[in-house]
UniProtKB/TrEMBL annotation:
InterPro entries noted in UniProt: TVIIS_effector_SACOL2603_fam
Protein name: TIGR04197 family type VII secretion effector
Length: 91
């Protein structure tokens, strides 16, 4: 009979690695883009694009955090279910 299981150590390691990578993204500081003494349209457009990118990066960080937490909870749930279902088989 085949075995279906989760290697909790490897799973936790991968999730923690992803959380570390996410933390590195979160560490990127916002750039002060207040160039009030220029009225060059191309410069202002570039500043707007950078601001939009910073907003998207912030949203991505929030969504990634939610996804990683869901993934961690799912792994924990799988381990609990495995122990619950495997308990009677061990006896």
């Amino acid at each position: 009979m085949g075995q279906i299981s989760i290697n909790k150590t490897v799973f936790d390691s991968v999730v923690n690695h992803a959380k570390t990578a996410k933390s590195a993204l979160k560490g990127i500081k916002a750039i002060d883009l207040s160039l009030k003494e220029t009225n060059l349209k191309s410069i202002q457009q570039q500043i707007d694009v950078i601001k939009d990118f910073q907003n998207v990066l912030t949203l991505y960080n929030e969504l990634l955090d939610l996804d990683l937490n869901k993934l961690q909870n799912m792994g924990n749930s799988m381990v609990q279910q495995d122990e619950l279902l495997g308990g009677p088989l061990k006896n």
